[in-house]
Design brief:
about 190 residues, alpha/beta, Rossmann fold, 3 domains, 4-stranded parallel sheet, two-stranded antiparallel sheet, 6 helices, elongated
């Protein structure tokens, strides 16, 4: 099994964790978390477990107990909601009603990464980091197409690049020099940009 980068699990380190959720999300997330040495994953629960000992969760060997049983054993523990977004509100309410004070959700980026690992045929741009890289490439391509006609149009000339820092208020336009503006410099009324 793949070990998770500590960046993904940094908020869970040093806490007694009880995973809430035995459905699809729980089956996806809990086996990975149970293999992490720095995470003290004590066990698993859900809103339907009502007994002190309901067996173990999959091949992890983690005990499944009721919310009240876990709270009695680990009163300062943190609940980690391993449920789909649509079930998050009701799961949080059940944990709060049981008396848990610290409740956290699994970070979105961790869920996305585990979905990619579990389903290699998944559309690759479902990963947020990859989506951002694709967007950056798309912007680069649009930029190349939109500005290619201007490439080299001021070759061998002195050009003023107008930025938007506080010194812009003191700048007077130099005559005969092309001015190129960045960001919102076009809003400065007394400077004409080329």
């Amino acid at each position: 099994m793949v070990h998770l980068d500590s960046w993904f699990t940094r908020d869970m380190v040093g806490k007694d964790i009880i995973a809430f959720g035995t459905g699809f999300m729980g089956k996806l997330i809990i086996p990975y978390l149970s293999c992490e040495m720095d995470i003290k994953l004590r066990g698993v629960t859900n809103s339907r477990v009502a007994t002190e000992d309901a067996g173990t969760f999959l091949e992890t060997g983690l005990p499944i107990r009721s919310l009240s049983s876990w709270l009695a054993r680990f009163p300062e523990s943190t609940i980690l909601l391993c449920v789909a977004k649509k079930n998050e509100e009701s799961a949080r309410a059940a944990c709060e009603m049981a008396g848990f004070r610290e409740i956290m959700t699994v970070p979105f980026y961790l869920v996305e990464m585990l979905l990619d690992i579990a389903n290699p045929g998944r559309m690759p741009t479902a990963n947020p980091a990859l989506r951002m890289m694709c967007l950056a490439n798309e912007i680069r391509d649009i930029h190349k197409m939109a500005f290619s006609e201007f490439k080299g149009c001021h070759r061998n000339q002195t050009v003023a690049v107008v930025a938007t820092g506080p010194t812009l208020n003191y700048y007077s336009q130099i005559k005969g020099v092309p001015h190129i503006g960045v960001n919102s410099s076009f809003l400065k009324e007394d400077i004409q940009l080329n």
